[in-house]
Amino acid sequence: xxxxxxxxxxxxxxxxxxxxxxxxxxxxxxxxxxxxxxxxxxxxxxxxxxxxxxxxxxxxxxxxxxxxxxxxxxxxxxxxxxxxxxxxxxxxxxxxxxxxxxxxxxxxxxxxxxxxxxxxxxxxxxxxxxxxxxxxxxxxxxxxxxxxxxxxxxxxxxxxxxxxxxxxxxxxxxxxxxxxxxxxxxxxxxxxxxxxxxxxxxxxxxxxxxxxxxxxxxxxxxxxxxxxxxxxxxxxxxxxxxxxxxxxxxxxxxxxxxxxxxxxxxxxxxxxxxxxxxxxxxxxxxxxxxxxxxxxxxxxxxxxxxxxxxxxxxxxxxxxxxxxxxxxxxxxxxxxxxxxxxxxxxxxxxxxxxxxxxxxxxxxxxxxxxxxxxxxxxxxxxxxxxxxxxxxxxxxxxxxxxxxxxxxxxxxxxxxxxxxxxxxxxxxxxxxxxxxxxxxxxxxxxxxxxxxxxxxxxxxxxxxxxxxxxxxxxxxxxxxxxxxxxxxxxxxxxxxxxxxxxxxxxxxxxxxxxxxxxxxxxxxxxxxxxxxxxxxxxxxxxxxxxxxxxxxxxxxxxxxxxxxxxxxxxxxxxxxxxxxxxxxxxxxxxxxxxxxxxxxxxxxxxxxxxxxxxxxxxxxx
Amino acid sequence: xxxxxxxxxxxxxxxxxxxxxxxxxxxxxxxxxxxxxxxxxxxxxxxxxxxxxxxxxxxxxxxxxxxxxxxxxxxxxxxxxxxxxxxxxxxxxxxxxxxxxxxxxxxxxxxxxxxxxxxxxxxxxxxxxxxxxxxxxxxxxxxxxxxxxxxxxxxxxxxxxxxxxxxxxxxxxxxxxxxxxxxxxxxxx
Lengths: 621, 189
Description:
- Chain A is an all-alpha fold and 621 residues long.
- Chain A contains 23 helices and two strands.
- The longest helix of chain A is centred in the N-terminal third of the chain and has 35 residues, at 135-169.
- The N and C termini of chain A lie far apart (64 Å).
- Mean pLDDT of chain A is 92; it is low at 612-621.
- With 189 residues, chain B is an all-alpha fold.
- Chain B has helices at residues 2-44, 53-78, 82-110, 118-150, 160-185.
- In chain B, helix 1 packs parallel to helix 5 (160-185), helix 2 runs antiparallel to helix 5 (160-185) and helix 4 (118-150) packs antiparallel against helix 5 (160-185).
- Chains A and B meet through helix 10, helix 11 and helix 12 of A and helix 1 and helix 4 of B.
């Protein structure tokens, strides 16, 4: 029992609860001293913030920094050998592989939570009329489904980049291991705060939280804002760490254009999340302050302007979509050559296309506001910049098709998910231009067509690739393979169910079904399609349950796989054993001697152990 | 011998990585300050806020002079001048505190609007408040540096904490150099 209570996460949550009550109590106390009455809203905001800091104290996130601030020496991360076994995943660890898994666990927990919220409101929508939910409950579920899954996706890409990037570039760890652990752990209290918005009356706005509704509605929105705000810290600090890692920690001889393509897409993603995330944080903070201090940023009757919120919000939230998909597209480019045994077509172009998507992504936010009443002259420029995104994305598709062309394809489970990702993302890409073109968007805006389009991009750009990544790197983590049979059932159940869901959504959207509406007129004739969408959603949930079963059971009973299972050229498979040792390449030196993706070229090598080279030199002499 | 060289090389590399991380943080933070700048122009356009010019000029000069002393402190610690380092650092901290008193203590009390009075109030209190929050964190960092400096933790070769807080201090100063004209000088009544 004592060892359970001293586990990082348990201690953190206890401290968070204490901190929350302390924060709320302090505010109540100060107000009482000033002769003011109790007010719940500022109390829960301050309580939430103090609680999050309390969590970090409890989990031990400030211990080393406090020592550093007092000028004491702390151990280098490479000297720290944390706990072994399962327990290390539940406490503060500096090892990037442990943190990667922790991110992965959090991502999957949030995936289940966010998905379950959707399953609840899908039951409501399966039939016209109101059955199980009232309007506020429905809107809260829809909004939280969106934001919890966004958090899940952010954690998922952080999981992939944290675990894989240092292995791919031959680093011992991330550039700032303590910051890395901090950015993971701060996301845990943030997720708790985000979910707690349900306890404080929920909110009515959907995930976009537009004022004036968010200024007036129930106060659950404050917990929503605070949770997202703190998840933003996690995202910004994680991105900072990844940029520094990719730029400075590469193995000797690995030039930028010789590093694995996934590192490029992580670099591009991180540039967006480092900078743009500030703007969603700011926009949410302004609404929080408007509610708390009556500062009038967005209320027109008092000099504000609600359109300003949309500008600030979408300046992050559109590039955010590229944050979500770029790592996934990187996974596709990374795995495809391994499974078709051919060089990645146009490596440099693919690398630059990630950067291109990241940069054009900053110029397109206005296309979310065509119907919001923005200046007329802004519409067409935003339309063209939006359509411009198709160019670098097209480069990626061209490269994938050309890579597959005449390859010797194998079809293990990761490859299935890669191909599924390409097809679903293609659908997401093709349904995009009608939403980005002013004339058509005026009809499509706020309909289920947008919902369908968005789920296409998220499934194609994130869900399919992350499953591919998990099936692919699972042996690196555990030394065992996941079951191929169960994996195939997962894939062949999820993919058609997804198409059922998304085509249903786009169909009723084109016919005029609006978003964020709990009820619809039976005369519209949507009932049957809505029922099909609900069935599709539940089938996806079942396929993901199968995946979880496979994930957990294979850790103990899976087929042993300690070597280079996929015949990959990248250093983590070619040089390291599975499961990967602590501190990765400590004591191993390897040289980069060739191109990363020259599969099928006789005698070509990407990396080579330095000792081997030294020996062969001796034998030459 | 080679192990000493290795240690120096690894310290240099760590320093380079830390510097990069710090500048990435500045880039990120600059976007937040930029967002507030956009908020100001979007809501107020070419409107003058009609603030106390003398006080504005005074606090701006105080902050600029504090940056000068911060730079002196950093140069002196790198030259091994311990006494000069401490003196300059104390002057910087005192000037920083007077800036805070000037903005939060005097200007917030004097302004002819409160935070709830229309867009002017919202923008003014948000921008100065956010900047003052950064000044406050800067003063906390400098306070820690002062404590460690008094305990002789910094040498001419190893004083990254001084360098980092100095850069942070200059960064906040640069932000104010942009915020000052935008809040106090520009526009028509």
